[in-house]
Specification:
The complex is a heterotetramer of chains A (161), B (102), C (742) and D (387).
Chain A lengths: L1 H21 L3 H21 L3 H25 L15 H21 L13 H10 L3 H22 L3
Helix pairs in contact in A: 1-2, 2-3
Chain B lengths: L3 H21 L3 H26 L5 H31 L13
Helix pairs in contact in B: 1-2, 2-3
Chain D lengths: L1 H4 L1 H13 L5 H38 L15 H11 L10 H17 L18 H22 L3 H32 L4 H7 L4 H4 L1 H14 L11 H4 L9 H26 L15 H22 L5 H28 L4 H34 L5
The chains are: A mainly alpha (161), B mainly alpha (102), C mainly alpha (742), D mainly alpha (387).
Chain lengths: 161, 102, 742, 387
């Protein structure tokens, strides 16, 4: 059962990703991107990381995707659909991308991954929170600083002069 | 349960697709989307490893959240830059943004 | 020991630092606010420091396992390096002294820097303010001393050498900044060292010691794999250090413990201004007097001693090893050597500076002969009375300046003009008869001086110094004993000289005649004096040995128990010495005798026949006694000049010669000859040029151009191309990694 | 008797046991999920059919009219009439519209309205899926609505639609922040993000315990549903009908349904988070009462919203965004901090809750005071007459 769901979801995600790269209209590819995000979120749920899944939806779909769409709309009319969407090196890129993929797969199959599947603790979310303000408090604070900096920087950059 | 390698396969594929997008599209926003895909692949990888190897502790998810944070910041700044560039040069075609050229 | 105190451990060092940050970033505009911040912070950390200190005195077994608060910080390979603070009886003692003295000196500085006085009209930044005006940079001053307080407190509380080193360097930095606090000051005669240069000198000189010490730390880390006290001083690692040896060129196999001990001791030599790195301390007197009291008498210079006390297990790892001998030799020698110099100084602060050096020498000598407890005792007592003496001298100087100010205004001359230039308010020859003028200062100074001279029974200095002498005597260290006795005699002598010249006799200048300690600011300055005087006298009574006749049965000698608990852990001699008459007699003799001789020699200094001479020109009684030697002493054995010849000048000359060599012996000839040859060649081969070279040149040009065109296509300036290159490289390498056989 | 006491749950149980008699397990769960899905989908439709009528009645009364009174007694069938009208209308798709997106948008937006119901407990143990991150789920679904709006605005290839979409998303984004903050406050107090737990925790309804939070959330909710006074996304006077100008017929109907569905859902969420959900006198004895209390409370909240709509003028968009960023966010932040601080204090829960009330009221008072000063200054600077 899980295998079926997984296969369906991953096919959905991957095809959506391909469409993101391939589609001609930016807006469309943004929508495909959203679909890919959703697929990944569902994969998270399959991995029993519900919290992460919904955070993922909230941030990627609710914030980043919308941001991207805004950007697309604000820079509308730059891309006239009949000029090529790929640059001249796209064949090379695809070739070597495929090569990289093959390499990764080979590594993946070679290495005996240390799998030990245990049940996710019932109070996973509490543990997560505890980690954030406990073991990882400094990275957490740094991340928040980073966010603030990014916010200010974005405003400064994008402000009309 | 699904074997771990399946997840790794998917993430690897997703990563490479994002890479191709980031390296081959001409529009800056499309490039950004490719990068987002790559980040997602990484996230999925983290969570998969967390679930299959260290489910007892939450470190994997912690790092996933950090990745998400960074992605958010990156998207905000990147798009701001794109908008600014668009105002400046009326284009967001990456090929024409070659000021790095000496 | 209530475990809740653990959570307070980080407070004493951190608060002054916060004050520093707050002042530097925000509060510096308002002088009052800055001072308030600094004093408030140090007050709180003083209270908490005493809380911890007394708790540590009462606690049992704190010496075995100190109270620690720490956090993994630095990943050092396999292990983590934990940073944190620890509290054991020794730290407790230092915590009793350091924040308290800091607080008193902060309060003193309020008066000394003239907080609340009007801003001088023509006071410029980086110059001492005109008398009766507030220093323009006073906020900065308080920021610096707060940072220094952080450094010192942190240093005594650190639980590992890395953290200790950090605070150690913070102290060094503050010392540099504060010595050079009046960076704009300059003197008419070029030989007199300016504050800026003095700060630089201090910094560089100590830096020599620090570097060597760092080498010691590194060796230690290589040997033990940790720098945390708890691990270094564990019997196992001490054993390891004592047994494993390194093969030194001349000395043959030497135990690591000895090497490391000596290397670390060099750090102490630098910081505590021991011979041969003592030269910076006298010049450090260019700094404001509170700084001299705080950094160069009470705390920082004694940090070197504290370092040795702290790492004493390391020093004693090898039984009767050369390390201890080295320490004792340096210490004893410095004690005597500096005392002799102090005899001939006329600058009131210089005398104290040299006496500080010699007293520190006492402590090192004590450590060298294994008198762990005595050294610690003397360290604390010395901090109290030497701080007192410096503050007193500062008050005297201030009074002199005021007096000079008044007289100058009486003459109708701007006191900020040339007169301050040639009149030196620090020169004892200009003083005299200040006892009546500034009684509070005089009394306290007198007490401090007696304590320094080791006036019997009542003063603290007597007990601590006596214990050192007794230790030296009982443990059969005859040479050290006699050297120290002589040093003590000289100490008493120059103390008497200083007191007499400053306070007794008749005023030798109008300034001295008009000196006073009235006015609001003097209260800020005199109250700390009184408090310190109290400790300079009573402080010693906690260390009265129980074996002492008569007094012994009243004393429980708590000090000995506190430090003894430390000593027992590491197995130093910690039982009380049997009473022996010889050292007692000796110290009674030298202190009283010295004081008496000094008084005898100087009782009517300057008041005799050559009264006509200007005060600075009158001969010193010692000049008659030791003729040729006197100037030698006065110029402190010409060490500055010596070092100048030995190190400074050669360096300059070397660099100059390198430059000359490069410029005149290499480049010019080459250029000329090349020119000539080129001329001939060109003459000879114009035709060759025209026919061959041009072609070749053009050919080269075209080839280059071709290559250039070929290569420049690589740099497109497009991110994606670069990334593509990265991708190609990555996948190729990956392929290689996968396909090639391992 | 017992069967009646917990009627709905027992019905569900017996139904499940009955079908599991002749169906394999996965099929049983499948069937049950299907039924739940149907209920969820029906929810917005139901809401629309009832609430339109109610709204028109209420607004009518407020505006001193009678409201619909022709079709059926008191015009209760007005909604059905409208529905029929909508169904028979022609379905126009503008030329060079992005067709698939254009068609997808209304479905998504209605789906968003329906999905909200998945985590809302109608009674004890009566939630379709009581996720342990239910609160987060609600927020996440909200983002789906935004996407749908953008899709609609973009695909219909119409300036006004695009601007409307922009406005709508800007509004939703900016009001999501205070909304999330206030929800976070509730989650903090409850110590769980499960909707069921939130209801269970409300011995005293949180509207009393966390007044500031409630106010903030209510305003944010009104903004989220895009109702007056925050109904700029369809400000007829400025941008005809907002992002769904181009829609007509059934597709427009979907938007319409979504709107009322959202209204209903938001009211349900407010009820769950602040009014104690299905709690009420005698529920512990007779759980079957729960749903009725729940519905009653929802209707009360809906009525409140209609009242607000009927009585307040529309604000300008800058005022609206300003309100979100300059008032609601600080207020909710302050409140959140206060709650977190109090929860750290070693006090009995009751005392803590009292402190919550005090702090919340204080925050509200301060905010209103500042607003008043700002308003007066504004009036003075503009030289308006102060009424």
């Amino acid at each position: 059962m899980q295998q079926v769901i997984f296969i369906v979801l991953s096919l959905l995600t991957l095809s959506a990703a391909v469409m993101v790269v391939a589609s001609r209209s930016l807006f469309r590819s943004a929508l495909w991107l959203i679909l890919a995000f959703a697929g990944i979120a569902m994969l998270f749920i399959l991995l029993q990381a519900e919290f992460l899944a919904f955070v993922h939806i909230l941030i990627y779909i609710g914030a980043i995707a919308i941001l991207i769409i805004f950007a697309i709309m604000l820079s509308r009319g730059v891309m006239d659909p009949n000029e090529p969407r790929f640059n001249d090196q796209w064949r090379l890129v695809i070739g070597f991308g495929a090569l990289l993929f093959v390499g990764l797969v080979v590594i993946m199959l070679r290495i005996p991954w240390p799998v030990n599947i245990v049940a996710v603790p019932a109070d996973a979310i509490q543990l997560l929170g505890a980690d954030f303000v406990g073991t990882y408090v400094i990275p957490f604070e740094v991340a928040s600083v980073l966010l603030v900096a990014a916010l200010i920087g974005a405003i400064v950059i994008a402000r009309e002069h | 349960m699904v074997p771990l390698t399946w997840y790794l396969l998917v993430t690897a594929a997703l990563f490479c697709i994002g890479l191709v997008g980031a390296l081959s599209r001409r529009n800056a926003i499309a490039v950004l989307m490719g990068i987002e895909l790559m980040l997602n692949a990484i996230n999925l990888n983290l969570v998969a490893f967390w679930r299959y190897a260290y489910a007892a502790r939450m470190d994997g998810q912690v790092f996933a959240v950090f990745v998400i944070t960074v992605a958010a910041a990156e998207a905000a700044v990147g798009l701001a830059i794109i908008i600014a560039v668009y105002r400046q040069r009326r284009t967001i075609n990456v090929e024409e943004l070659d000021l790095l050229k000496g | 020991m209530s475990e809740s105190l653990v959570n307070l451990l980080w407070v004493p060092p951190v608060l002054p630092f916060l004050a520093f940050v707050a002042i530097v970033l925000w509060a510096y505009r308002s002088k009052k606010l800055s001072v308030g911040l600094a004093i408030g912070a140090i007050t709180i950390s003083w209270l908490i420091g005493w809380l911890l200190a007394f708790a540590s005195f009462r606690a049992e077994g704190l010496a075995e396992d100190p109270l620690r608060i720490f956090r993994d910080w630095l990943p050092t390979g396999s292990t983590w390096h934990a940073f944190g603070f620890a509290l054991d009886p020794l730290t407790g003692l230092m915590l009793f002294m350091v924040p308290f003295v800091c607080l008193l000196i902060f309060i003193y500085s309020v008066g000394y820097m003239g907080i609340g006085k009007p801003q001088g009209a023509h006071d410029e930044r980086g110059m001492p303010a005109e008398a009766g005006h507030v220093d323009p940079l006073v906020s900065r001053f308080f920021a610096y001393i707060s940072l220094f307080a952080c450094g010192m407190v942190g240093f005594v509380m650190a639980d590992n050498l890395i953290l200790a080193l950090v605070f150690w360097e913070i102290m060094g930095l503050c010392s540099y900044l504060l010595i050079g606090f009046w960076f704009a000051r300059s003197y008419p005669d070029p030989n007199k060292i300016t504050p800026k240069e003095a700060g630089l000198k201090a910094f560089l000189t100590t830096r020599i010691g620090d570097t060597i010490m760092l080498a010691g730390f590194i060796f230690l880390f290589i040997q033990i794999g940790s720098l945390s006290y708890s691990e270094i001083f564990s019997p196992a690692s001490l054993e390891k250090l004592a047994t494993t040896t390194a093969n030194l060129p001349l000395l043959g196999p030497t135990p690591w413990a000895t090497i490391i001990a000596i290397l670390i001791f060099f750090g102490a030599i630098g910081k505590s201004a021991q011979f041969p790195l003592h030269v910076w301390l006298p010049d450090a007197m260019e700094g404001p007097t509170p700084v001299s009291a705080l950094i160069h008498a009470a705390t920082m210079v004694s940090a070197g001693v504290y370092l040795i006390i702290r790492t004493y297990p390391l020093m004693t790892a090898v039984e009767h090893g050369p390390a201890l001998m080295f320490i004792s030799i340096i210490g004893a020698f410095t004690a005597l050597f500096a005392a002799t110099i102090a005899l001939a100084q006329n600058d009131i602060k210089k005398v104290l500076a040299y006496s500080t050096i010699s007293q520190l020498g006492f402590m090192f000598a004590a450590l060298g002969i294994g008198a762990y407890i005595a050294a610690t005792f003397h360290l604390l007592m010395h901090s109290f009375f030497k701080a007192l003496l410096f503050l007193g001298s500062g008050s005297v100087i201030h009074g002199m300046e005021h007096g000079h100010h008044e007289t100058a205004h009486a003459d109708g001359v701007s006191a900020h003009g040339d007169i301050t230039q040639d009149f030196d308010p620090q020169d004892m020859r200009n003083m005299g008869g200040l006892f009546r003028r500034m009684p509070k200062t005089a009394w306290t100074f007198l007490l401090g001086g007696l304590s320094l001279a080791g006036f019997p029974i009542i003063t603290a200095g007597f007990w601590s110094k006596d214990e050192i002498l007794a230790d030296a005597w009982v443990n059969e260290h005859r040479i050290v004993f006699f050297v120290l006795v002589i040093a003590a005699l000289l100490t008493a002598f120059y103390t008497a000289r200083q007191i007499v010249m400053t306070f007794f006799g008749k005023p030798r200048t109008p300034a001295a005649a008009h000196a006073n300690e009235h006015g609001s600011i003097f209260w800020w300055m005199t109250i700390p004096l009184m408090v310190l005087a109290f400790f300079a006298v009573v402080g010693g009574w906690v260390g009265i040995p129980t074996t002492f006749p008569v007094l012994g049965q009243f004393s429980s000698n708590p000090f000995h128990h506190i430090v003894g608990s430390m000593a027992e852990v590491y197995g130093f001699e910690s039982e009380e010495l049997p009473f022996s008459l010889m050292p007692l007699m000796a110290s009674l003799l030298v202190s009283l005798g010295g004081l008496f001789l000094g008084w005898l020699a100087y009782r009517n200094y300057g008041t005799d026949k050559n009264y006509a001479l200007s005060p600075t020109a009158r001969p010193d009684p010692l000049q008659r006694l030791l003729r040729g030697l006197y100037p030698v002493l006065q110029n402190s054995y010409y060490f500055d000049e010596l070092y100048d010849r030995l190190f400074v000048q050669p360096t300059k000359r070397l660099s100059y010669w390198l430059y000359r060599f490069d410029d005149q012996l290499v480049i010019d000839p080459i250029v000329d000859d090349v020119g000539k040859v080129g001329l001939y060649l060109s003459e000879a081969s114009r035709w060759f040029d025209t026919h061959v070279v041009d072609a070749a040149v053009n050919g080269v040009g075209t080839v280059t151009e071709l290559f250039g065109n070929a290569v420049r296509t690589l740099q497109t300036g497009r991110v994606q191309n670069y990334l593509l290159i990265a991708l190609v490289t990555l996948s190729v390498l990956l392929g290689a990694f996968l396909l090639l056989p391992k | 008797m017992y069967y009646i006491q917990d009627l709905f749950v027992n019905i569900a149980r017996s139904w499940t046991s009955w079908i599991s008699g002749f169906l394999p397990l996965w099929a049983v769960s499948g069937v049950n999920y299907l039924i739940m899905a149907v209920i969820l989908v029906m929810m917005p439709v139901l809401a629309t059919l009832t609430l339109t009528w109610m709204e028109r009645k209420v607004i009518g009364r407020i505006q001193n009219r009678i409201g619909p009174n022709r079709v059926g007694p008191f015009g209760i069938f007005q909604a059905f009439a409208d529905a029929v009208k909508m169904l028979v209308k022609e379905d126009v798709i503008p030329t060079d519209a992005d067709r698939p997106v254009f068609n997808l948008a209304p479905i998504l937006i209605a789906a968003g309205a329906a999905l909200l119901w998945a985590v809302i407990p109608f009674g004890r143990g009566m939630a379709a899926a009581d996720l342990n991150v239910g609160v987060l789920y609600i927020i996440a679904i909200g983002s789906m609505t935004m996407i749908a709006m953008l899709m609609a605005g973009w695909s219909s290839n119409n300036k006004y639609a695009l601007i409307g979409a922009f406005r709508a998303v800007a509004q939703l984004l900016s009001y999501e922040v205070p909304m999330v903050l206030s929800i976070a406050t509730v989650a903090l107090v409850v110590g769980s993000m499960r909707m069921g737990a939130v209801v269970e925790a409300q011995v005293v309804p949180f509207v009393v315990v966390l007044p500031a939070t409630f106010v903030v959330y209510l305003m944010a909710g009104i903004a989220e549903t895009g109702r007056s006074p925050f109904d700029l996304l369809e400000a007829e006077s400025e941008i005809v009908a907002g992002y769904f100008v181009e829609y007509s017929g059934l597709k427009f109907g979907w938007f319409y349904i979504a709107e009322y569905g959202n209204l209903f859902a938001i009211s349900a969420i407010v009820t769950t988070l602040f009014l104690g959900g299905w709690r009420g006198p005698g529920v512990s004895a007779v759980p079957a009462l729960g749903p009725f209390y729940f519905i009653a409370k929802i209707v009360a909240v809906v009525f409140l919203m209609m009242w607000i709509r009927g009585t307040w003028p529309r604000v300008r968009i800058d005022q609206m965004l300003g309100l979100a960023w300059k008032v609601l966010v600080p207020v909710s932040l302050a409140n959140l901090l206060w709650v977190a601080f109090v929860m750290k204090l070693p006090l009995p829960t009751a005392l803590q809750w009292v402190l919550f009330v005090v702090g919340g009221l204080a925050v509200l008072a301060v905010a209103l005071g500042l607003l008043g000063r700002a308003g007066r200054r504004h009036v003075a600077s503009k030289g308006m007459v102060q009424t």
